[in-house]
Amino acid sequence: MLMKTAFPFRFLLGVILLISSLSGTAWAQETAEALTVDERINLAMSPMVGKIFDVIFWQIPFTEIPFILIWLAGAALFLTFYFKFINFRSFRLFIRTIKGRYTNADDPGEISHFRALATALSATVGLGNIAGVALAVAAGGPGAIFWMVLVGLLGMTTKFAECTLGVAYRKFDENGKVLGGPMLYLRRGLKERGLGPLGRTLAVIFSILCIGASLGGGNMFQVNQAVSQLQFVTGIDGAGWAFGLVIAIVTGLVIIGGVVRIASVTSKLVPIMCGVYVLAAIAILAMNASAIPGAIGLIITDAFTGQAVAGGVLGVILQGIKRAAFSNEAGIGSAPIAHATVKTRHPASEGIVALFEPFVDTVIVCTMTGLVIVITGMYQNPDNLEGVPLTSAAFDGQIAGFRYVLSAAVILFAFSTLISWSFYGQQAFSYLFGNSRASGLVYKFIFCIFIVIGASMSLGAVVDFSDAMLLSMCFPNLIGVFILLPVVKTKLQEFLAHAREIDGES
């Protein structure tokens, strides 16, 4: 291990002192005003968030284009060609694989293909689809939906490559538990290719960023939007910290169970959540079927004109890419952590399963959300709503009282994402500080603290921090993916040969 187990406690003390220092400074500046708890937390965290955002979203000189978005979209496009459009020709293989056709009961791993997919989907299908689309449309206009879908389709191949590597380089501890993800394939994979120092460095950087992402996009954003929806429905403003405290306590009780328990919970919640939300979207689209062609036309037209936003075409494209990456996390490196736990001897089999995450998440669910927002006219946002409340208003205008159903779904989405991302973050934390019970408890305590912080902060600050932490993971992750592409190709050929052999026997 890289550091002694005792180090997390000093790390935690440093976090507390840093927040206390920031809080003290912020409060001193506002001594003349009586601030609520939520306002104090928001005031303390916002300056630090702004600085982090500026660093991660560094713009290419003489342009307004953040390099990080070019890095993500360009990688997805390149990999799609490199693997000869495997994202469009693997549906039949995906169905057979997820049904367990090519897996034996004694294969190494902890959970089935389906449970691994459900665990990963629980962290991607959620408030990114409900709030993320609304944020994209509000900031980039209807055309942002087009770019979200396009990036989602291309991102399928990125997800295939990284999840194949996640299984290929996983390892098992003395208790049979799996440790996998970019931390492992960066260190072990690059060492195989004579790049050991680079691999170790990238693995540490990725782990640090993954911990930050688990506290941001996988935590603060989720609870923040759940609180926003409850405030929108009830008309009660403030006291976000109290709601966050309740969620933190419930989450803390669940995440003690480990990955098997997480998989058990999320495999039940995800189909229910998706089913209710998607059926409502289908119902609204069916009731307004005649308006769908016009909505699609508006989305396509606005994608190339950008008339709806001040940023023009570039603003539309950037919003679409950013929200798509946040929604499906292709290239981020989070999903390989969950998929590494699958029971299989063929890494590419799980890559094929993971490949369809962005399709479900972005191409299907985000498109439905976007069409509802456009068809109902809420894309014009007359009430200046943000995030989930905007989507809620669009649905509620068509299905009376659906805001209450959506509130329950939002809480479930947020909760399932919290427990899944707590696992991602803990794996990264364990890589840095040791896989001991003490280390795990320290991380979970920090994670629960940030639930309360996220519930208290303003949406703008939360989105900036979440975007910065989550998307920054793509830098070390994709460097490793590019270097290890020959390994992915070899694993794919091995799995295809295995599949042909099984299919030939039936």
Topology:
Elements: H1 7-29, H2 37-56, H3 67-82, H4 91-98, H5 113-124, H6 127-140, H7 143-168, E1 171-172, E2 178-179, H8 182-192, H9 196-234, H10 240-254, H11 259-287, H12 292-305, H13 312-328, H14 335-339, H15 347-354, H16 357-375, H17 388-396, H18 402-433, H19 437-456, H20 459-472, H21 474-483, H22 485-505
Antiparallel strand pairs: 1-2
Helix pairs in contact: 1-2, 2-20, 3-7, 4-15, 5-11, 5-18, 6-13, 6-16, 6-17, 7-12, 7-13, 7-15, 7-16, 7-22, 8-9, 8-21, 9-18, 9-19, 9-20, 9-21, 10-19, 11-16, 11-18, 12-13, 17-18, 18-19
Question: What is the structure about, briefly put?
Answer:
With 506 residues, the protein is mostly helical. The chain has 22 helices and two strands.
Task: Summarize this structure as a short list of keywords or feature phrases.
506 residues; mainly alpha; Amino acid/polyamine transporter I
Description of the molecule:
The protein is mostly helical. It has one domain: Amino acid/polyamine transporter I (Up-down Bundle). 75% of the residues lie in helices and 1% in strands. Strands 1-2 form a two-stranded antiparallel sheet. The radius of gyration is 22 Å and the shape is globular.
